[in-house]
């Protein structure tokens, strides 16, 4: 396994649309494992999309409670797709390893049903609420080149980008 480099804004590769995988092959399984290891190496990581490590496949990993209050589970998903979303919305604080040190409230569907292929190439369906629902929507957005800051007002987005530039100047 390997820890992969996570791309940060404004890297244009984060805006690419990822392509579906034909099947979950040995290569895709290795990618899932590397992404999971990368996620564990980053503190407070809940999810990671392949696009964030520069791979344009529709693959995501999520470490979240299976149901609200259930045990932690490491989801490895290929071709994840929301097949149903509740009209009920919920707002939660989101962050992203591709937008370091920025957090903002984003409103999304409170409940989603999603289908995907697991690491054994088996079709699965999950009925997600809470953090898992938020995370599935956030990670699938990545596969379509969408970032959580896209949902913010231009002013808030600009503030996050400015703050990041400042942090980078201080680091340099
Ligand atoms: Zn993200």
Describe this structure in words.
The chain has helices at residues 26-41, 130-143, 154-171; strands spanning 47-49, 59-65, 72-85, 89-96, 99-109, 112-117, 123-128. By secondary structure, it is an alpha+beta fold. It has a single domain (12-171), classed as Alpha-Beta Complex (Peptide Deformylase), CATH 3.90.45. It binds zinc ion. Zinc ion binds next to α2.
Number of helices: 3
- CATH class, named Alpha Beta
Alpha carbon gap, first and last residue:
30 Å
Counted beta strands: 7
Give the domain tally: 1
Mean pLDDT: 94
* Percentage of residues assigned to helices: 25-40%
The helix/strand class is alpha+beta
Strand content: 25-35%
Features:
single chain; 172 residues; alpha+beta; Peptide Deformylase; five-stranded antiparallel β-sheet; two-stranded antiparallel ribbon; 32% strand; globular; binds zinc ion
């Amino acid at each position: 396994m390997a820890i992969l480099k996570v791309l940060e804004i404004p890297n244009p590769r984060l805006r690419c649309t990822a392509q579906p995988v034909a099947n979950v092959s040995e290569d895709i399984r290795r990618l899932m494992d590397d992404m999971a290891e990368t996620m564990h190496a980053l503190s407070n990581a809940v999810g990671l999309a392949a696009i964030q490590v520069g791979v344009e496949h529709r693959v995501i990993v999520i470490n979240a409670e299976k149901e609200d209050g259930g045990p932690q589970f490491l989801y490895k998903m290929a071709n994840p797709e929301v097949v149903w979303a509740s009209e009920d919305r919920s707002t939660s604080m989101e962050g992203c390893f591709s937008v370091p040190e920025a957090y903002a409230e984003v409103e999304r569907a409170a409940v989603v049903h999603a289908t995907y292929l697991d690491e054994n190439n088996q079709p699965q369906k999950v009925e997600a609420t809470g953090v898992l629902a938020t995370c599935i929507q956030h990670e699938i957005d990545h596969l379509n080149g969408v970032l959580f800051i896209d949902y913010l007002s231009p002013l808030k987005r600009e503030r996050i980008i400015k703050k990041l530039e400042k942090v980078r100047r201080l680091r340099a």
